[in-house]
């Protein structure tokens, strides 16, 4: 059967984004005081533990058309979103490597080897889509996607959290399916244990990068931005997964409990680097996340409903206002100091 080139999913606030940054500013960063740490990380990247890991085996050589149609559509969407996110990382890291070659060869090689990993992941996911006679045109994605500009410190916050939350998402699914193999609807999940170690190593690189630049961590501005990015990453995941509860149910997971565990673990990881952690044990934290997810679903419902455009717009404005208000309430919840987890700061 002929493979169809899939049209990219329409971009929204919750879809994976492509980023660009101030490459000249990054080229000027001084990492000399942490040179040994970066050299150790670079040596791990060079070893390439997963060089022989992303190789399809005989379990892939079967038809997957007997999957429940709704589950198949949700799984294809999961593959597409994951592939897009990995390819976005590849493009950013590849460009950073190219721009830093003459000014910072250690960082340049680290970014080059991380781009190698991301390309490997994206290719593996795209081949998985091929089992459903679909494929993403990654070259078209490169040219057609809008690129969001983030300053270097925002890139570091966002990519650190993206890599760490990716680790916890993959390893949580892997451990669950290892315990309950009957829910492993497709063989790609067997690869998640080694796969997530790539994410973890990438996160460790960005942790070292943040540590090498105290100005990104040790002032009031950085505490506020760390709070913002933690919340942004958690909310994005929570709202996305709330809409895809049926997919998680198909692999034997409760999407809410899964997200709660991933958020808890990522928050703990981030507290080792960031000056603050979110107080996820606050009684209002997950309650407010649930409200945000419900309002987001309501926006999608109104968007797809056939009615007068003016009425639809007014309803969406009202719902967006409620969603924004609850996000603000989440942001102003007391947070926990990473240096003293018994003490809350505002």
From TrEMBL:
Keywords: Chlorophyll biosynthesis, Chloroplast, Iron, Metal-binding, NADP, Oxidoreductase, Photosynthesis, Plastid
Highest taxon of source: Eukaryota
Cofactor: Fe cation
Pathway as given in its UniProt record: Porphyrin-containing compound metabolism; chlorophyll biosynthesis
UniProt record, GO biological process: chlorophyll biosynthetic process; photosynthesis
Domain Rubrerythrin diiron-binding: 77-210
Gene Ontology MF annotations: iron ion binding; magnesium-protoporphyrin IX monomethyl ester (oxidative) cyclase activity
EC numbers: 1.14.13.81
Transmembrane segments: none
Enzyme class of the recorded protein, top EC level: oxidoreductase
Catalytic reaction(s) noted: Mg-protoporphyrin IX 13-monomethyl ester + 3 NADPH + 3 O2 + 2 H(+) = 3,8-divinyl protochlorophyllide a + 3 NADP(+) + 5 H2O
HAMAP family, alphabetized: AcsF
Family note: Belongs to the AcsF family.
Functional note: Catalyzes the formation of the isocyclic ring in chlorophyll biosynthesis. Mediates the cyclase reaction, which results in the formation of divinylprotochlorophyllide (Pchlide) characteristic of all chlorophylls from magnesium-protoporphyrin IX 13-monomethyl ester (MgPMME).
Protein name per UniProt: Probable magnesium-protoporphyrin IX monomethyl ester [oxidative] cyclase
Gene name linked to the record: acsF
């Amino acid at each position: 059967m002929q493979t169809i080139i899939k049209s990219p999913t329409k971009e929204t606030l919750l879809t994976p984004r492509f980023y660009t940054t101030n490459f000249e500013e990054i080229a000027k960063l001084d990492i000399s005081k942490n040179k040994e740490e970066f050299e150790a990380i670079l040596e791990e990247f060079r070893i390439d533990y997963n060089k022989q890991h992303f190789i399809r085996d005989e379990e892939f050589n079967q038809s997957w058309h007997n999957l429940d149609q709704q589950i198949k559509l949700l799984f294809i969407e999961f593959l597409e979103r994951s592939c897009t996110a990995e390819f976005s990382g590849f493009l950013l890291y590849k460009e950073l490597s190219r721009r830093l070659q003459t000014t910072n060869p250690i960082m340049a090689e680290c970014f080059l080897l991380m781009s190698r990993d991301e390309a490997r992941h994206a290719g593996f996911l795209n081949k998985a889509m091929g089992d459903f006679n679909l494929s993403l045109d990654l070259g078209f994605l490169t040219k057609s996607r809008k690129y969001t500009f983030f300053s270097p410190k925002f890139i570091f916050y966002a990519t650190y959290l993206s890599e760490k939350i990716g680790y916890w998402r993959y390893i949580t699914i892997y451990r669950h399916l290892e315990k309950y193999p009957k829910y492993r609807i497709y063989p790609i999940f067997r690869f998640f244990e080694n796969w997530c170690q790539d994410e973890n190593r990438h996160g460790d690189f960005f942790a070292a990068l943040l540590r090498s630049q105290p100005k990104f961590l040790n002032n009031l501005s950085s505490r506020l931005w760390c709070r913002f990015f933690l919340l942004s990453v958690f909310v994005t995941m929570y709202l996305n997964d709330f809409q895809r509860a049926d997919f998680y149910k198909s692999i034997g997971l409760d999407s809410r409990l899964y997200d709660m565990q991933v958020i808890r673990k990522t928050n703990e990881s981030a507290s080792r680097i960031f000056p603050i952690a979110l107080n996820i044990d606050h009684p209002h934290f997950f309650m407010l996340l649930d409200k945000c997810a419900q309002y987001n679903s309501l926006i999608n419902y109104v968007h797809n409903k056939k009615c007068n455009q003016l009425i639809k717009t007014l309803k969406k404005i009202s719902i967006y206002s409620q969603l924004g208000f609850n996000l603000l309430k989440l942001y102003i919840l007391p947070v926990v100091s990473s240096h003293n987890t018994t003490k809350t700061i505002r």
